[in-house]
Here is the input.
Amino acid sequence: AKTEELAGIEQELETALGQFRDSMKQYGAQNVAEISAKLDQAESFLSEQQKKTGKDESPIPLQKDILPDIRRMIERVPVFLAPNDPQPAALLNRLAGLEKMNAGIRQQRVADTRMRAEQYAGGDKGEIVKTAESILAKAQPGAKILRTSVVSSDWKEESVLEYTDTTQSAVRYRVTQSVTAEVAAKKADGAFLYTLDVSKDRRTDGSWGPLYGHVMFTDSILEENVEK
Here is the structure.
């Protein structure tokens, strides 16, 4: 009786193990298909961007996390596949090609990056420039400012009805004027172009409050292109 019972248990274990192997194989196939689809999407996007080379519109690289995320997926997939399955190596080979394409587009974009032309001619331009450089100095300590440009032709006004605090117990009518400035600065790891918002709010007496702002975007730029 015990022999029959053990045989039954052994059969159940073999069946369960077989089902587990089938599940792992199925899950591995699903993972490979998902990774392949992501590689297809990335390849299609980068191929379209490469067609822009030499044209007025600069090519755009993939978002920075896309290819590293795909690499992590590929590195996890072998556990679901049979030993020596060639699919992970093939996926990594495709990924390496895309990484090379993406790096080339990023480098070209850096080479094509320029500061926009100075547009603002108002009497408070000096104050705007000083504020923009102060904002950048706080955001990027140690950065050496190379050039600053106010690229808006005039102040843009926005009127908003908003809550005064997080309790949402009172509202106010806020009037804000803003301009966009660009600051090129050099750091230990290269030169960068920072796009900033510089704003001021209207006080209740009709006068304008102090300038404030923040860095909106950061792009790499070649130092020799800052003055071009």
Notes: The first helix runs from residue 2 to 50. The first strand starts at residue 144 and ends at 150.
